[in-house]
Specification:
The chain has about 280 residues and is an alpha+beta fold. It contains eight helices and eleven strands. The chain has two domains: about 110 residues, Pseudouridine synthase (2-Layer Sandwich), CATH 3.30.2350.10; about 150 residues, Pseudouridine synthase (2-Layer Sandwich), CATH 3.30.2350. Strands 1, 2, 3, 4, 5, 8, 9, 10 and 11 form a nine-stranded mixed beta sheet that branches. A two-stranded antiparallel sheet has the order 6-7. A hairpin with a 7-residue loop joins strand 6 and strand 7.
């Protein structure tokens, strides 16, 4: 199993572990997953989690609403290795984990109540008619491909707020030709690019990706939702879907104070922005 050396710790205390997840890394173990996951990395690199050495008062952090319906706090923590949420394999950014069952249950309770605020940065195709707004349409699995999602009438409620930060009308076609070896004129299928901040108010799988595509502004580099023509060009200069979990705010399980953690844009996406400026 390959060892991930580019997973970095943004913050750590006796209760929390905040990571900067790189693209290309899966969060949870599964039979179909090859290579080290975030779950594996935590067990290898965070001794207190692997040895189950929890603070003496960890039980005091368990929310009063906890029922034990899905197992004991220890069982839930062991099954998840402290992981409080998920990010797609090819999405980078700030990632929140708990170091003991009490902190995990507090975080899960906040996610369930939708009090945790997450901010994503994405680069999309095209120019928005409205510079800020929201997408409030239900999402469900595609009937033609159960691994992908779409807007469906009987899907689960999904809400994303967005704000355009900057519009890039074009990039240097000569530079595009030099970088990719492709004819610059083929970039005529592009109509500029928008740098967008998104705040998902629900946590559906592929939510931002599908919602932006629903607005006719799919993410640059998203081979599953951008369409075949643009996908063939995107891959020449954007190594993956341009989606980054930039910021997260929640209530610290112990102090009960609001805390915010930020993950800077990684180098591969910085290079893409330089290319379109």
């Amino acid at each position: 199993m390959a060892v991930q050396k580019n997973i970095t710790i943004l913050f750590e205390d006796q209760d929390l572990l905040i990571l900067h997840k790189p693209a290309g890394v899966v969060v949870n173990r599964a039979q179909t997953v090859v290579g080290e996951t975030i779950q594996d990395w935590i067990e290898t690199n965070i001794p207190t989690v692997a040895k189950k050495e929890y603070p003496a008062d960890w039980q005091t952090l368990i929310p009063s609403e906890f029922t034990g319906e899905f197992g004991t706090p220890e069982e839930i923590f062991t099954a998840r290795t402290g992981i409080a949420h998920r990010l797609d394999k090819d999405t980078s950014g700030v990632f929140v984990c708990a170091k003991h069952p009490g902190a995990l249950l507090s975080l899960l309770d906040q996610f369930k109540a939708r009090t945790i605020q997450k901010k994503y940065t994405c680069l999309t195709h095209g120019k928005f008619a409205m510079l800020e707004g929201e997408v409030n349409v239900p999402l469900g699995r595609r009937s033609s491909n159960r691994k992908l999602f779409a807007v469906v009438a009987d899907g689960r409620p999904a809400l994303t707020k967005y704000q355009v930060q900057e519009f890039f009308p074009e990039f240097d076609t000569q530079l595009f030709t030099e970088k990719t070896g492709e004819k610059g004129k083929r970039t005529s299928i592009y109509q500029g690019f928008s740098l967008v901040s998104c705040w998902p108010k629900t946590g559906r799988t592929h939510q931002i990706r599908v919602h932006m595509a629903h607005l006719q502004h799919p993410l640059v580099g998203d081979v599953q939702y951008v369409g075949k023509k643009r996908s063939r060009l995107d891959v020449l200069w954007c190594p993956r879907q341009f989606l980054h979990a930039a910021e997260i705010t929640f209530t610290h399980p112990r102090t009960k104070e609001a805390v915010t953690f930020v993950a800077p844009l990684p180098q591969d996406l910085e290079a893409v922005l330089e290319f379109v400026q």
